[in-house]
Amino acid sequence: MVSISGFKKIWSEKARQDLENPARPYVIAPAKWLGAFRAGIPARFKRSEFRITLIAMVAGGIAGLCVSVMSQIVLFAHHVIFLVSSNTGISGTQAITPLRTFLGPALGGIVFGLSLLLQSKWRPRLPVDPIEANALHGGRMSVRDSLAVAGQNLISNGCGASVGLEAGYTQIGAGFASNIGRYFEMRRSDLRILVGCGAAGAIAAAFDAPLAGAAYAFELVIGVYTIPALAPVAVAAFMGDMVAKGLSHPPFVVAVSIQNIGFSNYPLAVVLGALSALVGIVLMRLVTFVEQSVRQRWLPPLARPILGGCAVGSFGLYSTQVLSAGHGALHLLRDIPQTALVLGTILVLKCFASAVCIGTGFRGGLFFASLFIGGLLGKLFAIGLASIGYMPDEAMSLFIVTGMASLAAAVIGAPLTMIVLALEVTGVLSLTGVVMLSVLVASLTTREFFGYSFATWRFHLRGESIRSAQDIGWIRSLTVDTLMWRDVPMAARAMRLGDFRMAFPLGSFRQVVALDEDQTYAGLIDVARAHGSELDELSDVLVVDDLTTLANQKLLPKMTAREAADAFDVANTDLLAVVESQDQPKVIGLLSEAYMLRRYAAELERSRREALGEAVDG
Amino acid sequence: MSLNDLISREAILPSLKAANKKQALQDISDRAAEVTGLAAREIFDSLLQRERLGSTGIGNGIAIPHGKLAKCNRITGVFARLEKPIDFDALDGAPVDLVFLLLAPEHAGADHLKALARIARILRDPVITTRLRATRDADGLFLLLTQVQASHAA
């Protein structure tokens, strides 16, 4: 029997291991028959596209199941906390008492703060999201971290915090997919696709939009579209959607009635796209502003969500539309008559509510919030046009949908996903031109003037150089200690040249490492130069120290290939010694620039072929 | 590399009086500091550090102490003729009375070694050392060192 202290010891040991290896495998305990199935897979089938497609089908289905379960939990929470009985959610219900409106998010902040406390004790590290997993960890994700993220996302959304569930959906879908892939010992490139499949299944299930789910996976999670990845991703999206439908997950439909779209709407779509980009950039910066404002010594991290919850609760007193993700409010947006002033106020409050929630630490993303804010902006835009006399029948619905897609494209950084989503949730293909134009303007403007999506902006603030989900993990894993030669010829600094010549005859080595009295690095000796005839007369006088060069230039084991290339450049040499650390310059290896560049080029080629879906050995 | 580039008239000590190796190195370091503008202490420390690894007395009363310094920007020499030979822990155990100090930048590499080799070749010629020992003024020593270099080059 394990005592409590013993249990704690095991936990702390596990936490230490997790910190040392953030992408440590968590393999789901396999059923015996599954193990037999895995063991019995013929080698040819292991690399088949059929295999990954079948596995993607399972991953997509699991994602759909998770989305359904999570949305039901949230509906239940909304029912208990806010007495909301319909599927319109909090944001679509006006009849919530002020007390519940305020206390819901405020109490949610307390519960969330406690969850942060538990997390800091048991999982004291940042969970890896699907984009980061694919960019840096070859698609490796932890199920426990994903469950923790999903749980915290449920608390946040369930108590009315102004965040969507999409981050939790994709996290859990991708997390399970990653672990299924690892159970089946899938290759790095296939595992990355499978992470995309999990996310595709989740988004497809959440919006009843399989095409948008697949586009989301390609644009955001895998980072590149390839034909071999299409089947698994599309099948996963389809399965996610099917499972969610089968479990009666409420479909996401934006009702619009548009017959014909006049040409005059196209230039207006351009203007709306640019406005959406502007609001999107402000929203992303606002999150950072709030985050930095609450990061005060006197305000403990656990108190921040409580503060955020109280703030959002106060905003909710003006209109419940600013609470939670905004599903209900978006459904009703077209039909509720509202003045420009009210709409503008709700738009500003919703932006603040989302920024405050994420900035104070609530778990969730801006996916749905940006759809709703975009819808508000579109409606405001249409009202503005009406005030100057432009009021065709289709304007309201058209600009709500266009604003929705454009602002979400600016914030999420997935233009194709948002175009397809707008078409799938409305079912109106005639929107294509206007939506596409506006989304592209929003996306282009954001990229040009801001340069980030919300996800990459957050990575940037954390100091990560991730600009997309494209696999750069191999570059980071190609470190000096994986490339260096460990068998290093060494000579003491005080060794006489004559003795050195005997110990290292011409042709034996190119360079020898000179060592100090305390066995630390003192420089490199060119063996050919040491054998130069002009030094014959001095062979009894010169010592190794006289021949050393590059005493101050050395490599460290954790340097990446790129950093090492810079070091070679600065030192103007093609061979450098590798030392344990700057403080402890004990020599552990040698690395040549030519060998490093050869390996780098080979890995680059391998990565390129994997990205294109070509067969790669090993 | 020509010896002209290494040494100047100001870098000659024609009759250095030193009781021991340490004092000789200290006095030559002081002159090297005047010639190069580097700190005398830094020069002295680098020479001592090198001597700890092994004496630079090459035999026949000659020593070529040398060191590399980060702040040094060109290879520079200082020559000293000692009034009285001193013990220098030389290879042959003989006392030293001709000292050629060589300072080089840390990154000098092959140039530093070539300069050392050239100095050693010149100072190992018994005809030249006899003349150097017989000359007592700085001008004469400077002329001898630079002209000898020219004849060797020819």
SSE topology:
The complex is a heterodimer of chains A (618) and B (154).
Chain A: H1 4-20, H2 32-39, H3 43-46, H4 49-82, H5 98-122, H6 130-136, H7 143-158, H8 166-183, H9 188-207, H10 210-222, H11 227-246, H12 265-294, H13 304-318, H14 327-332, H15 340-359, H16 367-387, H17 395-412, H18 415-426, H19 432-449, H20 454-461, H21 473-477, H22 480-483, E1 490-492, H23 497-503, E2 511-515, E3 521-526, H24 527-530, H25 544-547, H26 561-571, E4 575-579, E5 587-592, H27 593-611
Parallel strand pairs in A: 1-2
Antiparallel strand pairs in A: 2-3, 4-5
Chain B: H1 3-6, E1 12-16, H2 21-36, H3 40-53, E2 57-59, E3 62-63, E4 66-69, E5 76-86, E6 96-105, H4 110-123, H5 126-134, H6 138-153
Parallel strand pairs in B: 1-5, 3-6, 4-6
Antiparallel strand pairs in B: 2-3, 5-6
Helix pairs in contact in B: 2-3
Tags for this model:
heterodimer, A: 618 residues, mainly alpha, Clc chloride channel, CBS-domain, 3 domains, 3-stranded mixed β-sheet, two-stranded antiparallel sheet, 27 helices, 5 strands, 62% helix, 4% strand, disordered N terminus, B: 154 residues, alpha/beta, Mannitol-specific EII, Chain A, 6-stranded mixed β-sheet, 6 helices, 6 strands, 23% strand, globular
